[in-house]
Every structure is written in C-alpha cells, then in structure tokens.
Amino acid sequence: MPGVARKTANIVLYHGYGVTAGVAVDTHVMRLSQRLGLTAQKDQNKIEQDLMAITPKDKWMPLTDLLIFHGRQVCMAKNPQCAACVLNKICPSAFTFK
Ligand code: SF4
User: Taking phi first (over 0 means left), then psi (-120 to 50 degrees means alpha), and beta for anything else, what does residue 14 get?
Assistant: First the structure.
C-alpha cells in the first residue's frame, strides 16, 4: 500500500480484506516484544521480521492483537503489573521495574 506505513497497512489488509501480510508493530507490540525477549531489535521493521520468524503466518495478526491488549491491560509502559501477569514465570523482564 503506497504511502502507508507497514503497521497501518498490515492492519488494514487484515481487518479490511482478510489478508495476512505481517505483524503490526505499534508501541505496545514493540515494548512487549522487547520485554518478553522475543527480539533484541529497536527498529519496528526488524522487530516485525523477528516476530514473523518465530510465529506461524496465521497467528501474525492474533499475536498483534494479544500483545496490544496485554500492553494496555497488564504490561503498561510505566508500572507493569508483573505480580498479576500470567507470563511472569517465563518473562525475562518480570519484576525488574521499580
Ligand atoms: S511479567 Fe511484567 S514485564 Fe513481563 S510481560 Fe508480564 S507485566 Fe510485562
């Protein structure tokens, strides 16, 4: 989609046309991917490549939605709720925030 960033294009293609083209990396997906150790990258496109490499294609957009939801509800940028997080036993960043 010319003139549209990958994140927006991925969301529009999936929700508007049922086409899975990638993982939509917004601020929540970026933060969660890094905290969970799914990527060491800082660039959105590189993070997307890392996530696509470890996730089946039919799970790319469900992964996007799950990471965004978890980032909004539990793993916020400030004061992540590690004690209440279902991932706290496997997350390398659990309880590292003050
Ligand atoms: S354990 Fe903490 S840092 Fe890890 S995903 Fe859960 S809330 Fe985020």
Answer: alpha
**Residue 52 Cβ contacting ligand 1 at under 6 Å:** no
Domain that holds residue 78: 6-84
* Whether residue 96 has its Cβ less than 6 Å from ligand 1: no
Q: What is the rounded CA–CA span in Å between residue 85 and residue 90? A: 10
- What does each of the 98 residues of the chain score in pLDDT, given as a tens digit? 677 788 999 989 988 999 999 999 999 999 999 999 999 999 999 999 999 999 999 999 999 999 999 999 999 999 999 999 999 999 999 999 87
**Residue 85 Cα: closest atom of ligand 1:** 6
Q: Whose CA is nearest to atom 2 of ligand 1?
A: 82
Residue 38 lies in a domain: yes
CATH code of the domain covering residue 57? 1.10.1670.10
- In this prediction, residue 4 carries a pLDDT of 77
Structure tokens at 53: 């490499």
